[in-house]
Amino acid sequence: MADLPNKARVVIIGGGVIGCSVAYHLTKQGWSDVVLLERKQLTSGTTWHAAGLIAQLRATQNMTKLAKYSQELYGTLEDETGVATGFKRCGSITVALTEERREEIYRQAAMARAFGVEVEEISPAEVQAKYEHLNTDCVVGGVYLPLDGQGDPANIALALAKGARQRGAVVKERVKATGVVKDGRRITGVQWEDETGQGTIACDHVVNCAGMWGREVGQMLGVNVPLQACEHFYIVTEAIEGLQQLPVLRVPDECAYYKEDAGKMLLGAFEPNAKPWGPIPEDFEFDQLPEDFDHFEPILEAAVERLPMLAEAGIHTFFNGPESFTPDDAYHLGLAPEMDNVWVAAGFNSIGIQSAGGAGMALAQWMDAGEKPFDLGDVDISRMQPFQGNKHFLMERSKETLGLLYADHFPYLQKRTARGVRRTPFHHHLIQHGAVMGELSGWERANWFARNGQTPEYEYSWKRQNFFDNVRDEHLAVRSGVGMYDMSSFGKIRVEGPDAEAFMNYVGGGDYSCPVGKIVYTQFLNNRAGIEADVTVTRLSEVAYLVVTPAATRLADQTWMERHKGEFNVVITDVTAGEGVLAIMGPKSRDLLQAVSPNDFTNAVNPFGTAQEIEIGMGLARAHRVTYVGELGWEIYVSADQAGHVFEALHEAGQDHGLTLCGMHMMDTCRIEKGFRHFGHDITCEDHVMEAGLGFAVKKDKPDFIGREAVLDKQEKGLETRMVQFKLTDPEPLLYHNEPILRDGELVGYLSSGAYGHALGGAMGLGYVPCKGEKPGDVLASTYEIDVMGTRVKAEASLKPMYDPKSERVKV
Ligand SMILES: NCCCC(=O)O
C-alpha cells in the first residue's frame, strides 16, 4: 500500500511546477501536513516540455510583482535545495516590426518602470549589438529587460518539490486522486488509488493543480475550472557554437520566441489559429503530439529569414506538446466559488514556469491567512462565468487565446471567437441601429454605434481609433441632450428574507436601514477596509434588496455575500437575466421619460437615489434614479418579456427629443470625467475605502460591519495615499491605464484607469498618489506629469471631480 497519511491539512492534486510550488510555499507558511498526489511522475504533463522563459513584466502591477518574485526565487532555489535549476539571468529582448507594436512595447517599458522592473528602450542598432545573429530588417525598435531569464522547467519543479519535502510535505508519485468525500460546501476527504490499493485522506483543504486535467479534476471536486489543452509547437536545432550568452528573443509580430537550449536554439510559436487538443489519454506521461509541419511552416519560414543561422543548423527536434489555455488568457488562482475549501492553481497559458513561483506564494499566503494577500482580480477563479466551463465554448475560444499571447494588445481589443453566448433582451434592436459589440464575461455589449454608411467594426490602433468621433458624439449627447444605453449585463442579485436588513448592514459599508425605494451606493469591505465589491443596493421591500454589481464580478460578489451569510436568515439569488436595463441619461432624460410614462419623475416624487415602479409604453418597469455618467438620468429595469417593447417605446419617443443611442465606451469616457471609480482598476481589495475617496459611502457609526475597525483606524491615523484625478494639458495624447505618474519630477505611481474626457477636452486618468503626513491640499500643491510612452506630459490634478464637482447636474 502507498505510504500515505490518513489525514492531512491539505491535499494538492497534480505534480507539475504549479503543484510543487504550492506545496513548497505552504510548507514555507509553516504547514507541515501537506500531501501532493501525482498520478504519474512529477512534471510528466506539461512542465517537462515547457520552454522555461522567465520574464518579469506582466500586464498589471501585481502580476508583475508575482513574476518578479518567481525570478528572484529561482535565483536562490539551487542554493537552497541543491537541485540544479539551470536558471540564468540572460536578459530578454522584444523587437517591434511595426510602429503599432513599437508603441505597445514602449508603453510597456514606461509601465515597467512604474512597476519597478529594470528596462531599456533600444534602437534597431542597439538590438543588433545585443543580438548579432538577428536580421534587423523591418525592426523599428526594441525593449531590453536585463534581469529576465530562463531555466530548466523540470528541475525548477523538482527543486520546489525537494524544498517542500525538506519541510515535511509528502510528495507521492503514481497515486491518482479518484474521488472525494463531501459535506455540503466542503470536501472532507480525497480518495486515491495506486497499483497496490486505494484509500482516503481526510483533509481540510484541496488544491487543484492538475494542469490540462484541471477542468475534469474540477468536475470531480464540484468546481468550474474553464481551460482547454492546445498544441504548442517548437523546434530545437542541432548544436550551434556560441549561443550561451544570448538573451531570450521575442518577435511577436512573427509569432516567435527564441532561446538558447543546451547549446541549441529553440524556436517556439504562438500562432493566431491554434489547435485545441483532446481528450487526453489516460496513460499520458511525458508524451508528445504528432508533428504538423504545415501548421508550423509559416512561422519557420519567417524565422529562417529573421535568424539566418537557423537555415544552416539542421533541426534536431520538432516538438508538439499540450499546454492549457483559459478563456481570457489569464491563469486561475484562488478559492473556487462553488466550494469553501477547494482551491485552484491551473490554466497557465504557456507561462507556467515564470508564473509558478509567484502564484504558489500568493495562493499559500491566501490559504494561510484566509484572505487574499493583495489584489489578485486578474487571475481570481471567481471571475469565470459558469458557462465558460462548457467544452464547446472552450474548444472555440482556445483557438484564439494561444495566439493572443503575441498578438498586438491594442486598447479595446475584442475577442473574435466563441461570441454571442449571452445576449441581452435588446441585442437585436441594438444591432439593427449599428451597435458595434464587445464582449465581457460572455455578454455581448454595445460598445459604440456606427453611423450610417460606416462599417460597424473596430479598426484597432494605439492612436485615435475609428470610433473616437462616434464616442465623442455619444458623450456630448449625454452631456447636453439625452442618450440611451443598455446596462442589462450588470449583475443583479436579490437578497431577501427576514434578516435581509441586518445582513446588508453587516456585509456592506452603507446604511441600508432606509425606506423602501431608497438606493444606496456602497462597497463591501474586507477586514482591512479594502474594497471587495462596488455595488448599488436598492431596497425593494421591507425584506428584499437588489444588489447591482459590475458584469464581471457578479459571481465573486454573490460568493462574498454567501460566505458571510453565517446565521443570517436570507436567500441570495442571481436574477441578472430576468430584467433588461436601459439607462436614459442626460439633461433631457426627464422629458423623454415623461413622454412615455404617466408617472412623476420630479424631485418631489423621485429624487436622486430613489426608485419607483412605473408604467412605460404599454408595459411596467422600475425607474432607478442613479447615474454612472454624472448626469440627470434613470436606469429603467424591465422584465425580459417586456424589454423589447420598452426599447421601442423609448426609441420612438426619443426621436422628438434628440435621443442618441450610446455604448459602453461612452459610459467609460463620461465616468472618468466625473471621477467615478471603476472596480478592478481604481478600486480593489487592497485599496482602502477612505484612500479611494469613498469614505462618504461608509456609515461609520454603524455598530458592526465588515471592515469597521480598519475604517475607524484610518480615520484616526490619516491617509497614506489618495486617489487623484488627472487631465493632460495637451489634448492630443491618449491614456489607457498604467501610465506612470510623476510628482514634481519623481515617479510616485501609475494611472489605475484612463480614457478621453470629450467634454473637458483631453485624456484623463485616475491614480493613487502617496500623501502620508500631508494635508489634503498639499497633494495639489505639486506639479504633475504623466509619462506617455516615454514622453512626460503635463497634467492638471484634482481631488474633486473636474466635471460638475458639486454634482449639481445629477440632482436637477
Ligand atoms: N512558454 C513560452 C513562453 C513565452 C513567453 O514568455 O513569451
Automatic annotation (TrEMBL):
Sequence similarity: Belongs to the GcvT family.
Protein name, UniProt field: 4-methylaminobutanoate oxidase (Formaldehyde-forming)
Domain FAD dependent oxidoreductase central: 370-423
Enzyme class per UniProt: oxidoreductase
Stored PROSITE patterns: PROKAR_LIPOPROTEIN (PS51257)
Residues covered by the FAD dependent oxidoreductase domain: 9-366
Entry EC no(s): 1.5.3.19
A Pfam family this chain is assigned to: FAO_M
Start and end residues of each Aminomethyltransferase C-terminal domain: 722-804
Classification via InterPro entries: FAD-dep_OxRdtase (IPR006076), FAD/NAD-bd_sf (IPR036188), FAO_M (IPR032503), GcvT/YgfZ/DmdA (IPR028896), GcvT/YgfZ_C (IPR029043), GcvT_C (IPR013977), GCVT_N (IPR006222), TrmE/GcvT-like (IPR027266)
Gene that encodes it: mlr_5
GO molecular function, one term: 4-methylaminobutyrate oxidase (demethylating) activity
PANTHER family named in the record: AMINOMETHYLTRANSFERASE, AMINOMETHYLTRANSFERASE, MITOCHONDRIAL
Keywords of this entry: Oxidoreductase
Occurrences of domain GCVT N-terminal (ranges): 426-702
